[in-house]
UniProtKB/TrEMBL annotation:
Domain of life: Bacteria
Originating gene: ytrA_2
Record-level Gene Ontology MF annotations: DNA binding; DNA-binding transcription factor activity
Family matches, as InterPro entries: Tscrpt_reg_HTH_GntR, WH-like_DNA-bd_sf, WH_DNA-bd_sf
UniProt keyword annotation of Transcription present: yes
Protein name per UniProt: HTH-type transcriptional repressor YtrA
Residues annotated as domain HTH gntR-type: 9-77
Keywords per UniProt: DNA-binding, Transcription, Transcription regulation
Family matches, as SMART domains: HTH_GNTR (SM00345)
Natural source organism: Clostridium acetireducens DSM 10703
Signal peptide: none
SUPFAM superfamilies named in the record: Winged helix' DNA-binding domain
């Protein structure tokens, strides 16, 4: 697993986002066990403490849970997965809209462009 980490954000945040994306995409399903901290840090070539911090944050957010001696698992909660999907899509859309506004586009122009692109493209 070769991941190129960005300099913009802390690595543990990027690891959190990788795991969240895998959940939304169905690569990680409810109840699935995450790789051990040692195994995942080895794959990503990062300090195990960085992966541990990501896992702790995911648990704090209610996305995973840890069973002592067993590992860390994706929480079995359809609502959590739906909420995660919504939050991630909202973040993508907000970034897109802000970048369009930075280019000088108004709300109506953004809507028109988006509709034209959606009509031409298979999404």
């Amino acid at each position: 697993m070769k991941i190129k980490f960005s300099e913009k954000y802390p690595i543990y945040i990027q690891i959190i986002n990788i795991i969240k994306k895998d959940i939304v995409l169905g690569k990680l399903k409810e109840g699935d066990k995450l790789s051990s901290v040692r195994e995942f840090s080895g794959k990503l070539k990062v300090n195990p403490n960085t992966v541990q911090r990501a896992y702790q944050e995911l648990e704090r957010e209610g996305i995973t849970y840890t069973q002592r001696g067993m590992g860390t698992f994706v929480k079995e909660d359809n609502e959590m997965v739906s909420q995660l999907k919504f939050e991630m899509s909202k973040e993508v859309i907000t970034t897109f809209i802000n970048e369009m506004k930075d280019l000088g586009f108004k709300k109506e122009e953004i809507k028109d462009i988006l509709l034209k692109v959606l009509e031409k493209e298979e999404v």
